[in-house]
Amino acid sequence: MERTLIAILIIVLTVVIYLVMNRLYFRFHYPILMPAITAAVAIVLILIGFNIPYQTYMIGGDWINLLLGPAVVSLAYPLYKQRVTLWENLVPIMGGLFIGTVVGMTSGILFAKYLGFSKEIIYTLLPKSVTTPVAMQIASDLGGIPSLAAIFVMIAGFTGVIFGPSLLKVFRIHHFIGQGVGFGTASHAIGTAKAFEYGEKAVSMSSVAMTVCAVIGSLLAPLFVWIFLI
Amino acid sequence: MSMKFIKVFLQIVVLYIFYIVGVWLSDRLHLPLPGSIIGLLLLWLTLMFKVCPVNWIESGANFILSYLPLFFIPATVGVMNYFHVFAGKGIFLILIVVLSTLITMAIAGYTSQYLAQREETKRKELKSWKERL
């Protein structure tokens, strides 16, 4: 009975905080105010402030977690809607995101290995450019830390938003396919939101790239672990 | 209002079934893909081959996707047990992610653009050949 009450309280608290942060984000539109970040920070502060352990929070949190699986499945729907875009630009999209993902994962592993980080951390770092729910799944399947993976995913997202525009200029990437695939492959959903500034075509490229990257990334991640770490 | 709610709820149940089947297949066949991704691919295939009508999942998928960040908040909060990771040399992890992301973006964008422009030139050449003939 007490557990049920705690669970309901935590679920309500999380949803309310999320909705408030969502309002805040739509009001000001700074990427740093993304509700996934601000809500998580607010909840962490509350838990630390009241000395509540994470395990207690998860009595309710686990119920919200339950929807992560179907959330990943839902990504099939936008991918289906964009089947024509994907089909008409199959080679440039697949070529770019495949090479991008390979280079992204390889560079992540090699940098981390060079600096002597543990395998657990490298497994966590590996899916940084994949959208959060999938990245957490990949990290946990490999033996990494899902919640830490979510943080790396956010850093990858912000990197794209902050440095992406100048990077595209420096490398003279002015074609909407290049811009969209660049944002989607490196910076997933956060990058896709930024791609709006490059027009609708870039957005749809970015969102296709992001979804396909989730599939390709979860296939490649165990392979790279096998190549570089065993 | 309540009808719409029931519809969204039932469609999320459908999405959940795809997820469960994905997990089951992943375990059973020892596939290297996570169950949720198998579920995604299954749904995508059934949509493409019109086995599953789009309006069976449309409202549910739209609902979940519009509240997507909410669903990974609890898992993200877990980072409170891992703050020590960023202490000391752990701060370099941020640098690694930033650097590796920039490389990814440059290479992915450049490759896509190169391939797209190559296809466009080919198409143009083909067109001009046809005109000459």
From TrEMBL, chain A:
Primary localisation category: membrane
Transmembrane segments: 5-26, 32-51, 63-80, 92-112, 145-164, 208-229
Tree of life domain: Bacteria
Keywords: Cell membrane, Membrane, Transmembrane, Transmembrane helix
GO cellular component: plasma membrane
InterPro entries linked to this entry: CidB/LrgB (IPR007300)
Compartment(s): Cell membrane
Membrane topology: Multi-pass membrane protein
Statement: the UniProt record of this protein carries the keyword Metal-binding: no
Protein's UniProt keywords contain Transmembrane: yes
Pfam families, A to Z: LrgB (PF04172)
Name of the protein in its database record: Murein hydrolase effector protein LrgB
Originating species: Domibacillus aminovorans
